[in-house]
Specification:
The structure is a homodimer. Chain A is an alpha/beta fold. Chain A has helices at about 5-15, 20-35, 35-50, 70, 85-95, 125-130, 145-160, 185-190, and strands at about 55, 60-65, 80-85, 100-105, 135-140, 165-170. Chain A has three domains: about 5-50, Helicase, Ruva Protein, domain 3, CATH 1.10.8.420; about 75-170, Dna Topoisomerase Vi A Subunit, Chain: A, domain 2; about 170-199, no CATH class. Chain A is built from eight helices and six strands. In chain A, helix 1 (about 5-15) crosses helix 2. Chain A is globular and about 70 Å long. Chains A, B: Belongs to the RecR family. Chains A, B: This is Recombination protein RecR.
């Protein structure tokens, strides 16, 4: 549609997740009109992240060193391990400030349709960690969707024989939400997981 | 939140138009996990567009040469000139395949609140073109919003004395739309602009 370089850039932005053709065009024109300095910073940031960022050797969280800053932190509780799908989930849990243990990032969830089985995830490394380290509780914090539940079920079965406490994050009503707008599965889970509020 | 380079990249993507913090994070992780070759292509495309693409000396459309491919095309109708706000609008008009004349890109619209007056737009260059070239009709194709209408009114007044036919794109019901869902201004314009359908 456009001449060479502009169309190339629109195509490249259009390949990024969540960016449609209109957004790609809008961003490409923004780049065209922005200060060269800002644009160089963007291009550099893209390259630098590929050069500098790798995955933690222990937990597979993103890291610029061999060990991520959580695995390096001796003050974290060494007895608790939270298993998540992605590095993004580590950040989500960290933001709650309720968990002070360490993590294990699986690198996805079991999804037969997309061809992702247990072997494509960092499950073998999780088993090795559980055999080597003294961990008392594994908290499975995969997504509360079909793939996350399948992964959770698989892990629970795999780890059940290790004699470690295995827990799963609670499902229920989101805080601040309206009961009448909750979907029936969530509301059903909230009933199943109901807790005593009297002493 | 994240360690250095990942957060830098999230910040840079977050500065692009239409990309919020969640999208920026999603794209940054995509970049982290994508093939290095794809990512180099993206970073190169960003730099190349700044190096190679400039604005046409005649019409201010984006171009990799001194003259854009439309101004270079001798087969375009030299008597018709379509005035638009942005290069994106040139593409939008080209896609209709109904206009075979040439363009003049203003580089925006009159917007006192944003501090954009006639002097910030390529209006002086438009006047020079109209004095030098033999143009029979100027079609004002600015956006049908407040700023576009203000720009159109300003241009119509400026160009009125040149003895050239000045037209404005029709406002009315969008094709394929529902009359009952049209806003009252659009529907009002459709009434004002009604056309005879009998011979």
């Amino acid at each position: 549609m456009y001449e060479g370089a502009v169309q190339d850039l629109i195509d490249e932005f259009g390949r990024l997740p969540g960016i449609g053709p209109k957004s790609a065009q809008r961003i490409a024109f923004y780049v065209l009109e922005a200060d060269r300095e800002d644009i160089n910073r963007l291009a550099d940031a893209i390259r630098v992240v590929k050069d500098k960022v790798k995955f933690c050797e222990v937990c597979f969280n993103v890291s610029e060193q061999d060990l991520c800053n959580i695995c390096r932190d001796a003050k974290r509780d060494q007895l608790l391990l939270c298993v998540v799908e992605e590095s993004k989930d580590v950040m989500a849990v960290e933001r709650t400030r309720t968990f002070r243990g360490r993590y294990h990032v699986l690198g996805g969830s079991i999804n037969p349709i997309a061809g992702v089985g247990p072997d494509q995830l960092h499950i073998r490394e999780l088993l090795t960690r559980l055999q080597d380290d003294t961990i008392e509780e594994v908290i499975i914090a995969t997504d509360p969707n079909l793939e996350g539940e399948a992964t959770s079920t698989y892990l629970a079965r795999m780890l059940g024989s290790l004699g470690i406490k295995i827990t799963r994050l609670a499902s229920g009503l989101p805080v601040g939400g309206d009961l009448e707008y909750a979907d029936e599965v969530t509301l059903g889970r909230a009933f199943e997981g109901r807790r005593s509020v009297t002493g």
